[in-house]
Amino acid sequence: MDDSIILHHYESSPYAEKIRLMFGFTNSSWCSLISPAWPPRPNVDPLSGGYRRIPIAQLGADIFCDSALIAQEIATATQNPSLDPYRASGSSLELMKRAEGDGFFAAIMSVPRLSLLGTMLRGFGPLGAYRFVKDRSGLLKGGTSKPKAAADAKDIMLGIFETLEGILATQTWIGGDTPSVADFAVYHPIWLHLSCSGDLPPSATKVRHWYEQLGQFGHGDRHEITQDDAFERAQSSAPRPLPTSDAIDDLELGQFIEIQPEDYGVVAVSGTLVAVTTDRVIIARETEMFGELHVHFPRSGYALQAAIKT
Ligand SMILES: N[C@@H](CCC(=O)N[C@@H](CS)C(=O)NCC(=O)O)C(=O)O
Questions:
Q1: Do the first three CATH levels of 6-81+221-306 and 86-215 match, i.e. the same topology?
Q2: Distance between CA atoms of 115 and 26, rounded to whole angstroms?
Q3: pLDDT of 222-255, one tens digit each?
C-alpha cells in the first residue's frame, strides 16, 4: 500500500497551496483527497474529530491539523530543516507572521467587492457562492482575529509588498540563498490576493519574479485517492510512537481535554491528552470506525482545557 502522506484539501485553499508547493520544492510524492470547501467534510471530519480548517494531513492513524505542523512533518521527512516553521527566526519569522496574520484577511478585504463576487461565482456557481459566503460569515465567531476595513487592508498588502521588495533587493529568497518556510508562508496570501483578482504593484518587480520562481516548483508527484483509501489506511495502521512530553500547566497526560484554535474556525476537538512537546499537542481519539487515532495540533495558537467525556 502507498504510505505517502495524504493531504485533505481543496484546490482554492491558500494554506493548502503553501503545502502543495512545499511538496513540489521537495520533489515529494503525496496523496490528494479533495474536501468540500466548507463543512461538513465527510472525508476528514471522522478522522480529525471535527477540526474545521483546511489543510489537514494524514499518515495512517496520525492526523495533523494546521499547515504549521504539516510543514514540520515535510521538513522532517525530507530532511529540509529550513521548511520547519518552528526553526524560523528574525526578519523571516516576522514577515511570515505578518503575511499569515493580518495579510491573510487583507489579501481578500483589499480586493473590490464586485471582483470578489465574480471570483466566487466563477469558482462555486451561484448556489455555491451563497453557501460559501454564509459559511465564512461565521468563521471568525468566538475567535481573536479581527479583519481590517478595506482601506487598512490595502495598506497591509502594500506594506508586505514593500518589505518583501526590500528583502529581495539583496537576496533571492526571504531567508537568504535558498527557499525556506517563510517563502511559502508569504507566497500563499499573495496567491490568494491574485486569485481573487487583486494585483501586485507595478513597482514590485522583484516580488513578481520571486512569486513566479516559487510557482515553478509545482506540486510534486500528486496522486488522487478516495475517501475509502484514506479510511482504510487509518483502520489498518496504529498511531506512530509518541514523543517525550513536557510538563504542562493545569493539565496532565491521560486527562480528557478539548482543544480549539484561538484565532478563527473555533471548533473544539476532544480526546485524551497523550503528548505535549514545545511545538505540538497530541490527543488520542477512540473511534468505532478506525480504532485509536492520534490527532496532532500546534501548541501555539490553540487553547486547551479539561473536558468531561460524554
Ligand atoms: N492556521 C491554519 C489556518 C488554515 C486556514 O485558515 N485555512 C482556511 C482555508 S485556506 C480555512 O480553513 N478556511 C475555512 C474552511 O475552509 O473551512 C493553518 O495554518 O492551517
A1: no
A2: 34
A3: 999 999 999 999 999 999 999 999 988 889 999 9
Domains in the chain: boundaries = 6-81+221-306, 86-215
260: CA distance to ligand 1 center in Å? 13
Residues 6+ apart with CB under 8 A from 118: 197
Q: What does the buried/exposed string (b/e) look like for 160-198 if buried means 16 or more CB atoms within 10 Å of the residue's CB?
A: bbebbbebbeeebbbbeeebbbbbbbbbbbbbbbebbeb
CATH architecture of the domain with residue range 6-81+221-306: 3-Layer(aba) Sandwich (3.40)
Which helix (H) or strand (E) element contains residue 221?
Answer: strand 221-224
| pLDDT tens column, 127-186 | 999 999 999 999 999 999 988 899 999 999 999 999 999 999 999 999 999 999 999 999
For the Cβ of 15 lying below 6 angstroms from any atom of ligand 1, the answer is yes
Index of the ligand 1 atom closest to the CA of residue 139:
14
Report whether residue 17 contacts ligand 1, using a CB cutoff of 6 Å: no
- The answer to whether the CB of 35 is under 6 A from ligand 1 is no
**Reported pTM:** 0.97
Query: Which residue has the least CA distance to atom 19 on ligand 1?
Result: 67
Reply yes or no on domain 86-215 having CATH 3.40.50.2300: no
Tell me whether residue 200 is exposed, middle or buried, using C-beta atoms within 10 angstroms of its C-beta: 0 to 12, 13 to 18, 19 or more: middle
